[in-house]
Write a structure and sequence with these properties.
The complex is a heterodimer of chains A (324) and B (522). In chain A, 74% of the residues lie in helices and 0% in strands. Chain A is mostly helical and 324 residues long. In chain A, helix 6 (97-124) runs parallel beside helix 9 (179-217). The model of chain A has no long low-confidence stretch (mean pLDDT 84). In chain B, 29% of the residues lie in helices and 23% in strands. Chain B has 17 helices and 21 strands. Chain B has a 6-stranded mixed β-sheet with strand order 14-20-13-19-17-18. Chain B has a 4-stranded mixed β-sheet with strand order 1-10-9-8. The longest helix of chain B is centred in the C-terminal third of the chain and has 18 residues, at 454-471. The two termini of chain B are 38 Å apart. Classes of the chains: A mainly alpha (324), B alpha+beta (522). The interface between A and B is large, with 55 and 62 residues.
Chain lengths: 324, 522
């Protein structure tokens, strides 16, 4: 087992190298230049100055040299400084992680808390009016563009009713709140973003749940349970659910690498300082060090996820382990 | 008796409250000489002062400099600095700080985009603690306004690498507001400087919130989550025309220091004949462009200055919308519809060109479409190409790979536009990318930079305006109005050509209307 893991870890190195080479060259060869060098066509910023800046940022060297320099720094875990504001890239990314992670985890919890019971109910009442109307509603929510739904909810809860704040994470006088007020304030701010980000996936997960449940309910052991005279509740929630929920657990596992992914549109509308906007802005500004750091982060997370899944499989299935 | 008189006539201004503004983007750095984006510059302008500044009527007045003298036919400027000004940390402001800022502006290792104007300085001399003398290689009138550059504290930055100093996220200045906190991508808070050399500002605190989405920004106005923001023409005329907005907000329509134009690539044979450019100017109805794109909230212009500027020549009359005349001029230049298919031809080739503009600006795309339709009416076929900003600049503008370009200029308060129209500025990456060359304009541009006397400069710029309008290297389209909205609880706001923010330290809110006193009382 140990040998298998080591072999896999060694295999990751050329893969990571390949990913960085490919993305480094693609990003640098794409037309356009970092916006610190261009800015908004200010006639006061002369061409000589821009050329000098290019040198200061080391962007005048040949690409392979730039790549090797970058790789050298990466080996010391130095992701460099952002071209936009000269701050450490690692610092810029890590200050965005808590927001993105919190929202993603909360929305996942909300998602499963709603989707699983809903799926079960639809399965139990399959083919009824209830099942059909839930299905239609979920598909409508699935089809609705996030930004549109978000704006409608903001208008309704924020302005028409005046119950919830529209954007941002904290109220302006947050720092003067007591501990409980802070929790309340954060929850009020997080409510809409979490709901909106959960709504899109509701259809998918609850459909999975529904079809698994329907399938399970047709198993012979369910007939047995019913024949024994068990109450319907016990049949569904005790016997059927345990088997029907297994594939859902797999889905949770698959969504873990995505916990650090953000969405630009969504974060912009709610004015949340998340990873998605950071990455988008980095691309628009051609902030090369920041883009590369995010690429590496994404690649490492994905590979770590795959590795963990493979190890888990290897653990269950000895054939994978011993294959030469 | 006199005291009583003043007391009854001047309402007592209350201190307190906060001003909350919305900004599309977060600031990048608060080292003022590195700040090139508008969000950073705006915050810096509250924290720092330059030696000079513009007053409400856009004329230069002293800021950290009490007065100045121009000597030796403009070769030297002597600034007399204010005494008793201190930095927010209590250290005194002296001539050494000015010299330090200057030395950083011309330091090739500092990533400042503003070195251009300061490289013309031949020598910088400290005469005493409160007097400095700047000597130029040759007289350079725009140089005076360049000393509006914020001055930075030597005692805090001397040993720092300016490019990566932590000062960029906790700056110390001399200005009316003191830096308090910055939460990345959320907000920047400043508190008022009670010891500010002009006077203590009435508003205790300013908070600049980052709200990247314009629709959200507008919703925040309705929940009073922000006190002010810019408006689109549609928001200005229709969406804010409700009882709620009339009661709680005040709207402003002020001149903007920018204009939109259609630039022709003059090295392209299609546009080398002046008559063709003039014909296009007759063929496009700018009034219609403004009415359709800005709902009328913009002004036509005839030259490369802002219509309110002293440099703008009001005697230049804009060409009437006259498509018959346009057709005649095109015919004189050899373009006629010989096969009556509706398009003009010359030597068997149809008159056809592409306008490029940048992505993400719906306004410009609409303008391009209107021009396309109006030129079709005189038989010219126009295509439109929209390109992402960074690619647009590096691949098309800098390489002069375009036929016509729809763009805008944001101008500095000084009218000098040597970099845009002088024939020496046509190399790759420079700003005369249309390739305009006129000896007379070249000479006038050089002369206008050499004199400090505004009357003389005015006459030079008026001539430049006239010649450029006649040459039509650009089709000048419009200067959009600067539309904004502000919560009505702020008193003391006096709109002027410079905008509304120039007298921010005079703004105040009545005690009973103050909204953020929990914050203020800290």
């Amino acid at each position: 087992m140990g040998r298998y893991i080591i072999r896999r870890l060694v295999g990751i190195i050329p893969l990571l190298l390949g990913i960085t080479i490919l993305s480094f060259f693609m990003i640098h060869l794409a037309p356009g230049k970092p916006s610190v060098l261009q800015e908004s066509m200010n006639p006061k910023i002369s061409m000589e100055v821009r050329n000098r800046l290019e040198k200061l940022y080391g962007l005048d060297k040949p690409l392979p040299v730039q790549y090797l320099l970058w790789l050298q720094r990466l080996l010391r875990l130095d992701f460099g400084r952002s071209l936009g504001d000269d701050r450490l890239v690692i610092e810029k990314i890590s200050e965005r992680i808590p927001v993105t992670l919190t929202i993603n985890i909360l929305s996942m919890v909300v998602l499963f808390l709603i989707a699983v019971p809903l799926g079960i109910q639809c399965a139990v009442k399959a083919g009824t009016f209830f099942d059909h109307s839930v299905t239609i509603l979920l598909f409508l929510l699935f089809a609705a563009p996030t930004f549109w739904l978000a704006l409608l909810l903001m208008q309704f809860f924020g302005i028409t009713l005046g119950w919830l704040p529209i954007s941002g994470l904290k109220s302006l006088d947050y720092e003067y709140f007591t501990w409980w007020q802070k929790i309340g304030d954060l929850s009020r701010h997080l409510f809409l973003p979490v709901v909106v980000s959960a709504v899109g996936s509701l259809a998918g997960v609850s459909r999975y749940m529904r079809s698994n449940m329907i399938e399970t309910l047709q198993q012979p052991y369910i007939y047995t349970a019913r024949a024994k005279g068990l109450p319907e509740r016990a049949v569904i929630y005790k016997h059927a659910l345990r088997n029907a929920i297994l594939p859902i657990v797999t889905i949770i596992g698959l969504s873990i690498p995505g916990l650090l992914g953000g969405s630009v549109i969504f974060e912009s509308i709610f004015a949340l300082p998340g990873i998605g906007r950071l990455f988008y802005e980095a691309v628009m500004m051609r902030d090369y060090p920041l883009i590369m750091a995010e690429v590496v982060l994404g690649a490492v997370l994905t590979m770590a996820g795959n590795l963990m899944a493979d190890i888990a499989y290897a653990y269950v299935d000895p054939r994978i382990r011993y294959k030469k | 008796m006199i005291a009583f008189f003043i007391y009854t006539n001047a309402p007592a201004q209350d201190y307190g409250d906060a001003y909350v503004s919305g900004s599309i983007a977060d600031a990048r750095t608060l080292v003022p000489i590195l700040a090139a984006d508008s969000a950073s510059s705006e915050i810096c302008s509250m924290i720092f002062n330059g030696l000079v500044k513009y007053d409400k009527d856009v004329s230069l007045v002293g800021d950290l400099a009490e007065s100045w003298e121009i000597q030796d036919d403009g070769l030297q400027i002597v600034f007399h600095l204010r005494k008793n000004v201190s930095w927010h940390d209590g250290a005194p402001f002296t001539a050494g700080d000015v010299e330090f800022t200057y030395s950083k502006l011309i330091d090739p290792g500092v990533k400042t985009p503003y070195s251009g104007d300061f490289e013309r300085v031949e020598s910088f001399e400290i005469i005493d603690d409160h007097t400095v003398k700047v000597k130029y290689k040759e007289p350079f009138a725009p140089g005076l306004s360049s000393w509006g550059m914020p001055i930075m504290p030597r005692h805090l930055l001397e040993k720092e690498d300016l490019n990566s100093t932590p000062f960029s996220r906790r700056p110390v200045g001399t200005g009316p507001y003191i830096f308090r906190s910055w939460t990345a991508q959320e907000k920047i808070e400043l508190i008022s400087n009670h010891a500010y050399f002009e006077k203590r500002p009435y508003i205790d605190r300013t908070i600049s919130r980052v709200i990247p989405d314009e629709a959200t920004m507008f919703l925040e106005l309705q929940t009073r989550g922000i006190d002010s923001c810019g408006l689109t023409p549609l928001q200005y005329l229709r969406q804010t025309d409700t009882a709620f907005f009339r009661k709680n907000y005040r709207k402003f329509n002020l001149p903007n220091f920018s204009y939109i134009y259609l630039g022709y690539n003059l090295s392209n044979p299609l546009f080398s004949d002046k008559r063709i450019r003039q014909a296009f100017n007759y063929a496009v109805n700018k009034k219609e462009v403004i009415d359709m794109v800005l709902l009328g909230l913009g002004r036509q212009l005839t030259g490369p200055f802002i219509p309110d500027s002293w440099a703008y020549n009001r005697e230049v009359k804009e060409a009437a919308f006259d498509q018959a005349r346009a057709r005649q001029l095109l015919k004189d230049a050899g373009w006629a519809d010989s096969n009556t298919d509706g398009w003009l031809e010359k030597e068997g080739k149809v008159f056809e060109f592409t306008i490029i503009t940048n992505q993400g600006n719906q306004e410009r795309i609409k303008v391009a479409e209107i021009i396309q339709r109006q030129l079709r009416d005189v038989g010219v076929k126009v295509k439109i190409k929209v390109v992402e900003w960074s690619v647009f600049l590096t691949e098309f503008i800098n390489k002069k790979d375009f036929e016509a370009v729809l763009l805008g200029w944001s101008l500095s308060r000084d009218p000098d536009n040597f970099d845009i129209f002088h024939s020496s500025k046509t190399r790759e990456g420079e700003f005369n990318f249309v390739g305009y060359r006129n000896q007379q304009v070249d000479d006038l541009l050089v002369e206008a930079r050499r004199v400090f006397n505004q009357e003389k400069r005015r006459s030079y710029y008026h001539q430049i305006h006239q010649i450029i309008y006649d040459d039509q290297p650009y089709m000048f389209l419009y200067a959009p109005d600067n539309l904004s909205i502000l919560n009505a609880r702020f008193n003391g706001v006096k709109p002027a050509p410079l905008g509304i923010g120039y007298n921010f330290i005079d703004w105040w809110v009545k005690k009973q209307e103050q909204r953020y006193n929990r914050i203020s009382q800290k």
